[in-house]
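Weekly puzzle thread! Below is a chain. First person to post its structure in token form gets bragging rights.
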Amino acid sequence: MTTTPDANATHAIAEVQGIVRTYTMGEVEVHALRGVDVRFERGEYVAIMGPSGSGKSTFLNILGCLDTPTSGSYYLGGEDVAQLSDSELSDIRCRRLGFIFQSYNLIQQLSVIENIEVPLYYQGWTERDSFDRAVALAELVGLGDRLHHRPNELSGGQQQRVAIARAMSNDPLIILADEPTGNLDTSTGTEILALLDQLSAQGKTIVMVTHDDDVAQRAGRIVRFVDGLVVKDTG
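Winning reply:
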């Protein structure tokens, strides 16, 4: 991996420069991102917004090293990760990123504590340390009394709390949240957002895709996409 030549970029937890993402579908080229420059500082809470097809999900996938740009640079913690191999990207996801999905993405056969431990297993944590870390995180999200329950024994809000604890397990540089309250009722969604507020107050860097203006207003900054371009960046 190479480090960015821009000394100022070292102050950013993440920065994309001139990111282009083009998909070829038969004879048609789809320009999902058309040259995006965005910088995220440590501890920021940022909402990504835009209409369907605006490029916000593609952008989040690139931030999460789930996709790679056609061209441009992506510096994560000062390292250019834009064109790494699949195995290198997998390692980055495991060590430096935390994910919260709309559909929770929990492993149904595993208990709460085992789901939280998954990223630690891949990092080679000892069984004792992994268990202690998972218990502490389960208690942090209010599930200390549900350690051995499986996802199908939990409510949607509780499952999302497990997902948040799992996202925190590797102490990530960035927590990436994709419509984290999309499958929840209003009351439960508010509880999950309050938990994200708490993590933000603790200095965690959070980037969240949402279509809901009320949800976005909880963030300190809003980045709006239209047709693969950033059209507004307020904070």
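Puzzle host: Confirmed. Bonus trivia for everyone else. The radius of gyration is 18 Å.
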